[in-house]
Amino acid sequence: MAAPGADVLDEGLTRIARTGPEFGGGLSSHAPMAAEALVRLGRAEAVEPWLDGYLRRLDAAPRGTDRITGQTWRDALGVPSRVGDWEAYLRDQLAQQPWRDVLARWWPRLLPGAVARPTYDALWQVCAALHAVYAGGVVPQALPAGVPADPDAVTDRAVATGDEHAIKLTEACLRLHEEIPDPVFLHAAARASDLLG
Questions:
Q1: Other Cβ atoms within 10 Å of 8 Cβ, number
Q2: Which helix (H) or strand (E) covers residue 74, if one does?
């Protein structure tokens, strides 16, 4: 049995597939992330209207320029104009092999400095860089006084912002709140909507 909202998510992902992975000079599309988060938040009915607005910002899917092969893939690494070629190449591989095999082969190849269990090192570097850029000089705020808004109200607030980051952060916070009931997660989600909305 399909999960609630799976058909809405599938339809949304089909719409998203007609667009490119980046827009506005190198910003990444967060459409799949937000669509999935809306479904997980129990707001499947919000996916289509949210996509109506967000997809206007995105470029069309890139077209291929030259076929990538098992012999030429290294030359195409990191070349922005080859995104369409990569999509076609990996789509062919996924048609021929299980996705787990394709992922196991390509994940280390696409990580910088691919050496043995490289994922942790790469993610640590990315997180450290993001922290240095965005958290430098920031003074932590005290936890708000009083009882936080309930999960439904926090969700409504995030959806109302229309911001993909507020939606995803709220989904993550509420998922953690279900596992470890702590008001800090509700406060964090509400604060994200205040800042991003």
A1: 18
A2: helix 73-76
